[in-house]
Write the structure tokens for this entry.
Amino acid sequence: MVKLSPSILSANFANLKEDIEKVEKAGVDMLHIDVMDGQFVPNISIGPVVLKSVSKITNLILDVHLMIDEPDRYIKEFVDGGANIITVHLEACTHIHRTIQLIKSYGVKVGVSLNPGTPLNHLEYILDDVDMVLLMSVNPGFGGQKFIPAIKDKIRELKKMIDARGLNIDIEVDGGIKVDNVKEVVEAGANVIVAGSAIFGADNVEESVRSFREEIK
Ligand SMILES: O=C(CO)[C@@H](O)[C@H](O)COP(=O)(O)O
Ligand SMILES: [Fe+2]
């Protein structure tokens, strides 16, 4: 079953409750929360305070994507804020193994994200420890960018690595996913789809979610 995780980065922050209710009603599975520190990525978004408020108004799985340097400093805040899965960037962690263990110690799920230019072999010694791998299909920092086609091969390779080890790990793909390319991403092996501008930016959110579902069923 492929899960949809719309990114609130493209929501209207002055109207967040209403926007979240719309996607929840439309039947999405998760809510993708993009956290940016202006250091690891050239943009600043939201943090644990907003997450905490969001957690009080939705039953969706809170899928927190941390685009921040040395995230160990803030893991507890995001756990307390209601995160169900916390994904960190491999490139932002000096001791990725330690960060993974720290997240797990709080009893939440853990994901590791790779930028488009980071090779899959960096996962070699940590793959067995994670619940999800998030492959970026744009360079992180902004919504509304164009999907990088080479990532489809990367998804296929990752799927092979996971299957070869007999693991049950989600493959999330994030960046530039629209109704007209989601099928290729799913066919390549992704089972968690992030879409920001294509869902929250759509004129009709419900219709957009329905179209995504049609494509990936
Ligand atoms: O993490 C990021 C960007 O860094 C994403 O989650 C984007 O917010 C996805 O937006 P679209 O590319 O779907 O508009
Ligand atoms: Fe994201």
